[in-house]
Amino acid sequence: MEKNFRDKPTERADSEIIVGRNPVIEAIKSGRTIDSVYINANAKGSISVIVNLCKENSILVKRVDDRKLDKMSNGASHQGVAAVLGCASYCSVSDILENAKSKGESPFIIICDEIEDPHNLGAIIRTAEAAGAHGIIIPKRRSASLSSTVYKTSAGAASHVLVARVTNLASAIDELKQNGVWIYGTDAKGEDYTSVSLEGAVALVIGSEGFGMGRLVKEKCDFLLKLPMYGKVNSLNASVAAGVFMYEVVRQRGN
Questions:
Q1: Average pLDDT over residues 106-127
Q2: Rounded to whole angstroms, what are the CA distances from 148 to 14, 118, 184?
Q3: Where are the beta strands (DSSP E) in the chain?
Q4: At what angle do helices 47-56 and 21-29 cross, to 10 degrees?
Q5: Per-residue model confidence as pLDDT tens digits over 42-74
Q6: 160 closest CA partner among 99, 83, 246, 202
Q7: SS3 of 162, please?
Q8: Which residues, 6 or more positions from 222, have their beta carbon under 8 angstroms from its beta carbon?
Q9: pLDDT interval class at 11 (50, 70, 90)
């Protein structure tokens, strides 16, 4: 009997993407860590099965056109769907809080507000792991995710840091506040970062590369922190700034 290669998982050489309807369905059913599924906006038929499976497994679905899928599949027959594998599983905000509690420590959490560059996210995860942060929170939309690029940039730290991906950052912040966590946003109009106490339960919000924190997230912050700028360039790379703030928390905690 001739093999049906269409039913065999078709993966790119870097093992980041699976294409084809049956391969994607089987990948989801098998429990593989899938970051997101890209679907042709006009595709029909068994695509509905994939969409339902994604909903059941809380997998992000992105509607795109065939040009995007053609590029992702690198010439392979994608049948209107491609799944991007994740380098690690996501957790919940409560898991991060429980992680701190289990260690007998005050929560130390990083919130990434629309950090879209995977190299920045990877670098933030790497520093967070080194600084002893209990977890990172990212939004589902308009954010880099746990891709192979993030894993490589994090030098493997993505395997050791809890990452929660939430639908609504503002709601996640409310949950943190209900659990006694103070929210510190990073903004040019804030107070000097060394003049504010960062002891106790802390969540640092790192804004996007180009626009900083969103309006609603900024309004949710209890304090705003800034880094002094003495040069002609008045901003730092998001991951560099995050590192400075994180290690100020470490310094003040005396770790």
A1: 95
A2: 8, 9, 29
A3: 10-11, 17-19, 34-40, 60-64, 81-85, 108-112, 135-139, 163-166, 182-192, 202-206, 223-226
A4: 20
A5: 888 889 999 999 999 888 899 999 889 988 888
A6: 99
A7: coil
A8: 182, 183, 184
A9: very low
